[in-house]
Specification:
- The protein has about 120 residues and is α/β, with parallel strands linked by helices.
- Helices cover about 20% and strands about 25% of the residues.
- It has three helices and five strands.
- A five-stranded mixed sheet has the order 2-3-4-1-5, covered by helices on one side.
- The protein starts with a helix and ends in a 15-residue tail after the last strand.
- About 25% of the residues are buried.
Length: about 120
């Protein structure tokens, strides 16, 4: 696919060629990356990457962090897109496809979930 090749070329131009794992953070969870012992961080705005879908939902940063964690290269997607934003399934899976092309074998995808029961109390 031409779009994927263009994205791969972008990553290669940034000296990002191989990653061992990836994390895709859901709503408001990208700050979790601040608690990881990350080294050699490269932060990339999604708008710089050819054909990359850009989240429009509040709480989703528009960045990818490429870093080392325990001597392994990892990708951290600080936000993601949703189907209700108007993206196709191909667009929604773009981060996973790119991760695979960069060699990722393990991926963690998170989300924020809540409830409406009165016994659930706001803690933040």
């Amino acid at each position: 696919n031409k779009k994927i090749i263009e994205a791969q070329q972008y990553f290669k131009s940034r000296k990002i060629q191989k990653a061992h794992a990836a994390i895709i953070f859901g709503s408001f969870l990208s700050k979790t990356a601040n608690f990881l012992n990350l080294e050699d961080q490269i932060e990339i705005d999604l708008k710089e990457i050819p054909n990359f879908p850009i989240p429009s939902v509040p709480g989703h940063q528009k960045k990818i962090l490429f870093s080392k964690y325990n001597d392994k290269n990892i990708l951290i997607f600080k936000g993601r897109c949703h189907y209700y934003e108007g993206y196709t399934m191909q667009g929604l899976t773009y981060p996973i496809i790119i991760s695979k092309k960069l060699g990722v074998k393990n991926i963690i995808i998170t989300n924020s979930a809540g409830g409406l029961k009165k016994i659930f109390k706001k803690t933040i």
